[in-house]
Amino acid sequence: MSKIGIVGSGMGGLGLAIRSAVAGHEVTVFEANPYVGGKLAQIEKDGFRFDAGPSLFTMPHLVDELFTLGGKNPRDYFSYERLPEICRYFWEDGTRLQTNAEPAETAAAIASELGESAENVSAFLREIGENYHIISELFLDNSLHSLSTWTGSKALKGYANLHRLGLFSTMHRSHEKRFKNPKTVQLFDRYATYNGSDPYQTPATLSIIPHLEYNIGAFFPKGGIISIPRALHKLATELGVQFQLEEKVSQITTSNNTATGLVTDKGSYSFDYIASNADIRPSYEKLLTQEPAPKKLLNQPKSSSGIIFYWGMDRSFDELGVHNIFFSDDYQGEFKAIFEDKTINDDPTIYLHISSKVEKGDAPVGGENWFILMNVPANEGQDWDAVVAKMRKNVMAKLSRNLGVDIEKHLVAEDYLDPRRIEERTSSSGGALYGNASNNRFAAFLRHPNYRKAIKNLYWVGGSVHPGGGIPLCLSSAKIAAKLMSEK
Ligand code: FAD
């Protein structure tokens, strides 16, 4: 049995804590906040409850797997449902589209509303599913820095299919070639934002992302997204993991290129293995100042961040679903603003999520809890107070225009997050939601690995390291790190 210290209780930290406890290790998790979950937090305001971070839950089997590994029935801890509807789309010219859990229904809707061939849409959804399996076996479930990843039978299958993985084109160009209506292109381009990237730059390989929603499903956990870290916390505690909440780590100690322990604001601890679930940049710049940092990896462009308005509304809107998108008319300009000019367009695409459509207790009777997210650049010292004020006005106008209702008259509770606040609450560099952006075809190789020979016995999990951000990939990072640790 080894002693393992983990910095941070985000999804990566929780996943690794559970896997390590199941492997028989003594595990302690240090968390700066008074709660576990990192970006999976919640906000309560005037009778409304909001999930502060993620709103879309995909690949729930990756969470279930942790309970099964721990010898428990996941349904005794948390439950979820597959949503019958995926998303409602709104364009300024009045075009409306609803996509559904059944891929054939989505294909039929895109055919009737956007004039595509239903067969082409169905074939696209099938192909991205096949590509997903090739890529996930190679890139998502393994370390890119283990020789076995590149020499096994799965790698050979990957090499044989390299031509269909879209490494040499951008997501936007491949969608443009595939579909005739620019609105269909925009709809599938949108999925680049699921890892905080730009569809006009990110490789077409990432066209696999909608597979998760359209072929596997968009899920909703009972009690909201917050129930995921809470259930994992309960499981980890039952497995013997010790949580030191409100105990911020100030240093990862090393000796002879080997991690040896942690220093916190409350004491010093020795461990056989350490794992950092903190973003790589503050991990190196604040916790590992004595070690040389991999500058090239740390200096990669960041993924987008977000401005999120949490609005309590005093009425409900039948034309809205759980997930809704109000598209900008200038999509390319929106991404240019975010990734080149580091600013925000006046007409940004708006994502509006309403958990109270499913979880009635999230809003007072008759009302709705609106979570409104806009993609924005990571924090580089922009005047966020001015940006938030301007964006609030623009969002209010766009939603009022599209819904034909003066929204402001129905707003009864209000809060917000911006990149500065996200950074403060989760230590993520610049408040980036998904670590580095994946805006070039080498991005997967420019993510920090889950283990580096330069500092032995130190592992890395979470959205800023391989394989990337988002709940499922953070859980995969924990799986890879646990495997690497067991191979030591
Ligand atoms: P994080 O959540 O980043 O947590 C890291 C933890 O480490 C924090 O709790 C922090 O306090 C702690 N920590 C850091 N430094 C220290 C230290 N020195 N000492 C002690 N503790 C420390 N993903 C999806 O799958 N679906 C979505 O719909 C989605 N939407 C999102 C919307 C928003 C607004 C945000 C913010 C994120 C969203 N994401 C979404 C992304 C997803 O939330 C993240 O990729 C994922 O939760 C990151 O997990 P992590 O393991 O990297 O840890």
TrEMBL record:
Record bears the keyword Oxidoreductase: yes
EC number(s) per entry: 1.3.99.27
Enzyme class: oxidoreductase
Keywords: Carotenoid biosynthesis, Oxidoreductase
Gene Ontology terms for molecular function: oxidoreductase activity
Span of domain Amine oxidase: 13-484
Family, as annotated: Belongs to the carotenoid/retinoid oxidoreductase family.
Protein name as it appears in the record: 1-hydroxycarotenoid 3,4-desaturase CrtD
Species for this entry: Aquirufa novilacunae
Classification of source organism: Bacteria, Pseudomonadati, Bacteroidota, Cytophagia, Cytophagales
